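hey
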């Protein structure tokens, strides 16, 4: 019988392949639907992310949101620790952070109330399969203990999967935005 780590590794491998295929076929403007969603939260501090590899790119939506309120990007501080979020400006100077993701050259930390979350796979119930470091799970747990925190998964439609190997510590997504739709787990329609 396979253990959970093996099951998750297999699920990630399959999801990475689907994501790479979707990324290669993606039309420009995939962040348009994310911009529409964020327009309903103007001025609320939010965190996006700097896309790496074949992640869907939220930068256009982040740039639009930055005109109305603070936008940050995640900074990995140490293994096993929650993320911190450094204020990002569309034309601000960047440096390479851990795992090749770019982060602001000068840290100016803030706590977002909305997190745009990258992922490897998601399910219709708001489950998320990440990279395996637990950074977003720890961070969402910490932030949600303080105040309502909205977690928006941003992904290609092709990243949806059934039967994700989830654990009790996995933090659910409140919403998933893809290039074609907005899913709100737990809400009809």
């Amino acid at each position: 019988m396979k253990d959970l780590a093996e099951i998750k590794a297999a699920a990630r491998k399959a999801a990475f392949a689907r994501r790479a295929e979707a990324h290669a076929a993606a039309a420009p403007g995939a962040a348009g639907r994310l911009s529409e969603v964020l327009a309903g939260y103007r001025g609320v501090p939010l965190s996006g992310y700097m896309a790496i590899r074949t992640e869907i790119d939220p930068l256009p939506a982040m740039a639009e949101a930055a005109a109305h309120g603070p936008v940050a990007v995640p900074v990995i501080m140490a293994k096993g620790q929650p993320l911190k979020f450094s204020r990002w400006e569309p034309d601000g100077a960047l440096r390479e952070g851990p795992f090749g993701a770019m982060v602001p050259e000068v840290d100016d930390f803030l706590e977002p109330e909305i997190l745009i979350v990258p992922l490897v796979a998601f399910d219709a119930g708001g489950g998320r399969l990440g990279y395996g470091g637990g950074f977003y799970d720890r961070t969402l747990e910490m932030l949600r203990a303080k105040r309502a925190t909205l977690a928006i998964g941003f992904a290609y439609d092709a990243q949806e999967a059934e039967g994700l190997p989830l654990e009790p510590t996995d933090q659910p997504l409140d919403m998933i935005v893809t290039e074609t739709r907005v899913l709100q787990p737990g809400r009809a329609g």
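The helical segments are 4-25, 32-38, 59-66, 135-146. Residues 4-25 form the longest helix (22 residues).
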